[in-house]
Amino acid sequence: MARPVQYNLTQKPLEESLAMGEAPEGFTGEGFFATKLSDVVGLARKNSIWPLPFATSCCGIEFMALMGSHYDLARFGSERVSFSPRQCDLLMVMGTIAKKMAPIVKQVYLQMAEPRWVLAMGACASSGGIFDTYSVLQGIDQIIPVDVYVPGCPPRPEAVLDGFMKVQDLVGKEDLRRRNSSRYQELMHSYGIQ
Amino acid sequence: MITNEIIRQKLTEKFGDELTGWEEPYGMLTFTAPKDFNLKILQFLYDSDELKFRFLTDLCAVHYPERTGEELSVVYHIHNLVDNIRIRFKVFTNIEKPDVFSATALYASANWMERETFDFYGVNFIGHPNLKRILNVDDMEYFPMRKEFPLEDQSRLDKDDEMFGR
Question: For testing the chain A interface, which of B155, B158, B160, B161 should be mutated: the one with the most A CBs within 10 Å?
Fold first, then answer.
């Protein structure tokens, strides 16, 4: 017997404040709104982060769930997953990085244009995880600077969403001059990046 | 149809008492040979119209730290594809000068397997056309499967040895 088809017969009123972001602090008047440039740039950047998935193992499978309709990373302005590092803002390293893979991760990072952020997903990318062995890199922060670590083995998509929102937070609040600061240069220098 | 007894008899006729340590674990004929004989044995088994061992299934090494003077063993697994019979033989070498003749002239497949064996155990295959690391990073300074090296990555400072059972 065929299953009866169900239709959405009940009308549901649209919720208010649907998909409304928070406006930055500023002065509002008739026909104008004045705020800091950095706030506007931060707002634009944080809601259009283009991720570059660098998936090497099971965390990559969780990432596929994250990009799917159920968890839907596109809600956060990251519909466009790019596989070209030049156009990406966020490098998401997901999975075990072997020592032989380390130069490739670094090269991908170097190919990304500033400003760039890095999210390490899962125990392996964050610390080497259970692979405490001669062939595995003990955390990608040995070769590139990492902004957000997501723990778990593998983390659930919700955890990655949480980490992603942390990245958004960092991106939105970042000072426009941070990348030119001597402290940032020092950090890059400690990784051997000019 | 050839059997383990026939193979053993043929090998003993050819090489006499040089071959020792005859065993048949799980029905697979196994013996030990002096390391200078490895190519002669492989060639004999390959050329013989009766034995026809013409496929090198595997080539690997084992480290026995307690066997002074013959710490490293190189193991050859060869297969007669016609009669579907496999045999295995080992050669032993000391670890200070681990020189073993390369089988690449006879089996092209030995090329990568010998590189892997060199990579992990440091066996120096004489006559290999390109003996360099294949799986590990090029700048690795040791042979990680030798038993004096601990499995764990020694570069980590954040792990408490007591907590992690080191």
Answer: B155
Q: Do B136 and A138 touch (CB under 8 A)?
A: no
Interface of B with A in 102-141 (CB under 8 A): 135-137, 140
Quick check: A89 and A82 in contact, CB under 8 A?
no
Q: Would an 8 Å CB–CB cutoff place A130 in contact with chain B?
A: no
Q: Which of A100, A127, A133 sits opposite B137 (nearest CB)?
A: A100
At B22-74, the pLDDT tens digits run: 999 999 999 999 999 999 999 999 999 888 999 999 999 999 999 988 899 99
Q: In sequence order, which ranges of B59-133 are alpha helices (DSSP H)?
A: 110-121
How far apart CA B118 and CA B113 sit, in angstroms, is 9
Cβ within 8 Å, pair B144-A135: yes
Contact B137 A99 (CB under 8 A): yes
Ranges of chain A with pLDDT below 50: none
Cβ within 8 Å of residue A29, ≥6 positions away: none
For residue A17, what pLDDT is reported? Answer: 59
Q: Does B3 touch chain A (CB under 8 A)?
A: no
Can you read off the two tokens belonging to residue A20? 């409304």
The mean pLDDT value for B110-132 works out to 93
**Look-up: residue for tokens 């740039």?**
A41
Q: How far apart are CA B75 and CA B114, in angstroms?
A: 11
Contacts 24+ apart (CB under 8 A), B4-12: B4/B29, B4/B85, B4/B87, B6/B50, B7/B51, B7/B85, B7/B87, B10/B48, B10/B50, B10/B51, B11/B41, B11/B44, B11/B45
pTM: 0.81
Tell which of A132, A141, A143 to mutate to test the B interface (max B CBs under 10 Å).
A132
- Interface predicted TM-score of the whole assembly (ipTM), two decimals: 0.75
